[in-house]
C-alpha cells in the first residue's frame, strides 16, 4: 500500500535539522578506535550520562529513604515512650488502690480484735440469733 | 584511500592479526551512517556520540558472533538500534512523558547543533511520541529513504508489517500536528 503524504508531511522538509561540531567526522574513526579494547579484552561500554544521572537519582532516593526511616523510628520510639509512661501510671494507680484495700482490711481486723468479736459472732448477729 | 570490499573485510575480521585494522575500516565506512541513524533516534549530539561509541565497542567485543549470514551493515544497524533503544529507556526513567515532551522542545530550540525551524521542532516532538521501533522505521524511510527489504533484515520483521508501521507513524504525526496547531 502506498502511503500518500499529506500536506503536513509535505511541509516538513526531509533535510535533517541536526548538525555536528566542526570536524567531528574527520576525527571520528580515530576517537572510536581509541575506545576499542585490545584483542580478547572485554570491557564494558562507556557509561553514558544518563547512567550517571540515574546513579545520582538513586543515591538521592536512598538518602531520602534513610531520612524517612530515621523519622519513623523516632516517632515510634516517642509513641512507645508515651505508652510506657501510661502503663507505669496505670500500675502506680493500681498499686495505690491495692494498698488502700489492704489498709481497709487491716483496719477492720483491728476493730474486730479490739471488740473481741470473731466471725461466728458476726454471723449470729446477722442471722438474728443474738448474743 | 582504499576501496571498501565487504567480503575481504569480513575475512580479515576473522583473522586475529588483521582484525583490528579491518575493524578500523568498518568504523571508517559505517561511522557516519550509523551516527545519523542514532542521532535521529536520540536527537542530541552528545548522546548520539556516546551511543555510537558504545555501538562500536559492542560490535568489537562480539565480532566472533558475526557469522556473515547477514550483511555487516545490517548487523551494525541492529546493534546501533538496540543501543539507542536502551539509551532512550534509561532516559525515560528519569523523566515523565510530559516533562520529556516539553523538555525536548526547549532543549532542541536551545541546542547549538539543531538548525531547524518551528515546523521541524514540531516534527521532532511528534516523532519523539512514537514507540521506539515505529520511530526508527519512520526515520529510516522518511529521512534515509531506506528500502523496506533492507529494514526487514535489520528489524527481523516482514515488509508488510514495516509498511503498516510507517503508515501508522505518519498518521500519528499528522494527528500530533492537528492537535498542536
Describe this structure in words.
The complex is a heterodimer of chains A (131) and B (181). Chain A is mostly helical. Chain A contains 4 helices and no strands. The longest helix of chain A has 66 residues. In chain A, 5% of the residues are buried. The mean pLDDT of chain A is 73. In chain B, helix 6 packs across helix 9. Chain B starts with 5 loop residues before the first helix and ends with a helix. Chain B is built from 9 helices and no strands. With 181 residues, chain B is mostly helical. The longest helix of chain B has 24 residues. The radius of gyration of chain B is 18 Å and the shape is globular. The chains are: A mainly alpha (131), B mainly alpha (181).
Quaternary form: heterodimer
Helical segment tally of chain A? 4
Euclidean distance between termini CA atoms of chain B: 50 Å
Measured by DSSP, the beta-strand proportion of chain A falls in under 5%
SSE order of chain A, one letter for each helix or strand: HHHH
Radius of gyration from the alpha-carbon trace of chain A, in angstroms: 46 Å
What about the largest sheet of chain A? none
**Average pLDDT figure of chain A:** 73
- Please count the beta strands of chain A (DSSP E, at least 2 residues each): 0
SSE order of chain B in H/E notation? HHHHHHHHH
Query: How much helix is in the residues of chain B?
Result: over 70%
Span of the ends, CA to CA of chain A: 125 Å
Counting H and I runs of at least 4 residues, what is the number of helices of chain B?
Answer: 9
Task: Outline the secondary-structure elements.
The complex is a heterodimer of chains A (131) and B (181).
Chain A lengths: L6 H5 L16 H8 L13 H66 L4 H9 L4
Chain B lengths: L5 H8 L5 H24 L2 H17 L10 H23 L2 H14 L7 H11 L3 H11 L5 H8 L3 H22 L1
Amino acid at each position: 500500500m502506498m502511503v500518500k503524504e499529506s500536506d503536513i508531511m509535505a511541509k516538513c522538509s526531509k533535510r535533517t535539522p541536526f548538525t555536528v561540531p566542526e570536524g567531528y567526522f574527520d576525527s571520528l574513526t580515530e576517537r572510536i578506535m581509541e575506545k576499542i579494547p585490545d584483542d580478547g579484552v572485554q570491557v564494558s561500554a562507556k557509561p553514558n550520562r544518563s547512567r550517571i544521572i540515574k546513579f545520582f537519582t538513586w543515591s538521592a532516593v536512598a538518602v531520602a529513604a534513610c531520612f524517612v526511616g530515621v523519622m519513623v523510628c523516632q516517632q515510634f520510639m516517642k509513641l512507645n515512650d508515651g505508652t510506657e509512661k501510661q502503663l507505669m501510671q496505670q500500675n502506680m494507680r493500681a498499686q495505690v488502690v491495692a494498698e488502700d484495700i489492704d489498709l481497709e482490711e487491716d483496719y477492720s481486723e483491728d476493730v474486730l480484735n479490739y471488740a473481741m468479736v470473731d466471725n461466728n459472732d458476726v454471723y449470729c448477729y446477722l442471722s438474728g440469733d443474738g448474743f | 584511500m582504499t576501496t571498501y570490499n565487504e567480503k575481504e573485510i569480513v575475512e580479515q575480521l576473522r583473522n586475529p592479526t588483521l582484525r583490528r585494522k579491518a575493524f578500523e575500516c568498518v568504523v571508517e565506512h559505517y561511522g557516519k551512517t550509523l551516527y545519523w541513524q542514532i542521532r535521529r533516534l536520540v536527537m542530541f549530539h552528545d548522546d548520539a556520540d556516546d551511543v555510537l561509541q558504545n555501538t562500536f565497542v559492542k560490535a568489537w567485543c562480539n565480532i566472533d558472533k558475526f557469522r556473515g549470514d547477514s550483511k555487516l551493515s545490517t548487523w551494525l544497524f541492529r546493534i546501533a538500534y538496540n543501543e539507542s533503544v536502551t539509551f532512550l529507556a534509561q532516559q525515560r526513567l528519569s523523566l515523565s512523558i510530559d516533562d520529556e515532551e516539553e523538555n525536548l522542545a526547549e532543549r532542541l530550540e536551545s541546542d547549538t547543533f539543531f538548525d531547524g525551524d518551528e515546523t521541524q521542532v514540531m516534527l521532532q516532538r511528534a516523532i519523539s511520541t512514537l514507540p521506539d521501533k515505529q520511530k526508527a522505521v519512520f526515520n529510516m524511510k522518511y529521512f534515509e529513504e531506506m528500502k523496506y527489504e533492507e529494514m526487514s533484515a535489520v528489524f527481523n520483521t516482514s515488509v508488510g508489517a514495516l509498511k503498516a508501521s510507517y503508515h501508522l507513524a505518519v498518521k500519528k504525526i499528522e494527528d500530533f500536528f492537528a492537535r498542536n496547531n
